[in-house]
Design goal:
It is a single chain. The protein is α/β, with parallel strands linked by helices and 260 residues long. It has one domain: Alpha-Beta Barrel (TIM Barrel). The chain has ten helices and eight strands. It has helices at residues 12-15, 18-27, 43-52, 74-80, 104-120, 132-141, 162-170, 187-195, 225-236, 240-254; strands at residues 2-7, 30-35, 56-60, 86-95, 124-129, 153-155, 174-177, 201-203. α9 (225-236) crosses α10 (240-254). The relative contact order is 0.15. The mean pLDDT is 96.
């Protein structure tokens, strides 16, 4: 069995096809999925899916790309996370790729999420793009990770260097690979995936984006996470069953609330 550790199936293009999405998950042996929040106005749709389906979980948070959206407070995140199906805080982090100018608001938002994670003891889902130095720095300053008494988390849709991955792992974080790792152009990322230990790896789709080969360029969905697992098994020269078992075990080790 596989788990899609990061998807956005509440987005309209997927939500409109929910019976089909769930059926394809079952066909591809995808037992669970974590539907990840990107802003507070849309959080109710994330939670509604988690409440409706026992094998779907939710997170609460505001994506760093969302500039014109209500800014969360620690208290708000803590309150919204006080639900048994909300198993994580995020996605949060830094993204200097799409936005320019003074991005201090983005860094402050990231700090807010880390503080909420520490208070709720729920893991962080971190997005970082073209901002790895500041991401790691703020994680350390705010005490993210088990090495500082905080909570572990995941660096989702990872595309950074081995050095960044190892820094995050040193703080107790997991590294999640999306369909990007299957792309022919992703040689550097493939080298990172090959080097990392299996006990620190998760798999995801980030659907509806970034469909893996052989679906690249099409709309992504949780059932396709099996293709990420298949690619990693070939890349790391291990049996596919081992990738399935280890990534599933890693998911439940990180998101302990999902075990109940």
């Amino acid at each position: 069995m596989y788990i899609d550790s990061h998807c956005h199936i509440n987005f309209p293009e997927l939500a409109a096809r929910m019976p089909e999405i769930l059926a394809r998950m079952a066909e591809n042996k995808v037992s669970h999925a974590l539907c990840v929040s990107v802003d507070l106005p849309e959080f109710p749709s994330v939670l509604a899916l988690a409440e409706q389906y026992p094998h779907i979980y939710a997170s609460v948070g505001v994506h760093p790309d969302y500039e014109d959206t209500p800014e969360p407070t620690v208290a708000q995140l803590v309150e919204l996370a006080d639900h048994p199906k909300v198993i994580a805080i995020g996605e949060t982090g830094l993204d200097y790729y799409r936005l320019e100018g003074d991005l201090e608001w983005q860094r402050e938002r990231f700090r807010t999420h880390i503080r909420a994670s520490r208070e709720t003891r729920k893991p962080l889902i971190i997005h970082t793009r073209s901002a790895s130095e500041d991401t790691i720095r703020i994680m350390r300053e705010e005490g993210a990770g088990t090495d500082k008494g905080g909570v572990a988390g995941v660096m989702h849709c990872f595309t950074e260097s081995l050095e960044v991955a190892e820094a995050a792992i040193g703080m107790g974080f997991y590294i999640s690979f999306s369909g990007i790792v299957t792309f022919k152009s992703a040689k550097d990322l493939q080298a990172v995936a090959k080097a990392l230990p299996l006990d620190r790896i998760l798999i995801e789709t980030d659907s509806p984006y970034l469909a893996p080969v052989p679906f690249r360029g099409k709309m992504n969905e949780p059932g396709y996470v099996a293709h990420v697992a298949e690619y990693l098994a070939t890349l790391k020269d291990v049996p596919l069953r081992e990738i399935a078992d280890r990534t599933t075990e890693n998911f439940f080790n990180l998101f302990k609330a999902a075990r109940t």
